[in-house]
Design goal:
The protein is mainly beta. Helix content is 9%, strand content 36%. It is built from two helices and eight strands, in the order H-E-E-H-E-E-E-E-E-E. The strands form three sheets. Strands 5-4-7-8 form a four-stranded antiparallel sheet, with no helix packed on it. The protein has a two-stranded antiparallel sheet with strand order 1-2. The mean pLDDT is 78.
């Protein structure tokens, strides 16, 4: 009975009939609903992680041809590495917000096998 009526939101009438014919009736009242925890009066301070989560990246694509298919291609101002596609083309997405403020305005794509070297402006 306790398990059935534990989380009740309405009153429950329980009627028990004994073997001798006597009847016992009880009304189990609903418990008072709990109120939700109050919201904090002041907003939580912003953390570095929450700032990063809501930041929209500013991306720029840098592309060049002439690489050996599948070769490793270095992306410099070294912010990442990429691979050449099956056609020999390489592609990198640069998040401009991750570059140091005083970084140059050019990016280098360098094929580790072919030695293909491409310089592109970030404009």
């Amino acid at each position: 009975m306790d398990a059935i009526t534990k989380d009740r939101t309405v009153a429950v009438r329980v009627e028990v009939r004994e073997c001798d014919g006597s009847v016992f009736t009880d009304i189990i009242h609903p418990r008072t609903p709990r109120r939700a925890a109050p919201l904090p009066k002041r907003p939580m301070p912003e953390t570095r992680r929450s700032r990063h989560a809501r930041r929209v990246p500013r991306l720029m694509e840098v592309a060049a041809d002439g690489f050996v298919p599948g070769e490793d291609v270095v992306v410099a101002v070294i912010v990442s590495h990429t691979d050449a596609a099956g056609t020999g083309a390489a592609r990198a997405l640069i998040d401009l917000d991750t570059l140091p403020y005083d970084a140059g305005q050019e990016v280098i794509l360098l094929g580790r096998i072919s030695g293909t070297f491409a310089v592109r402006r970030l404009t």
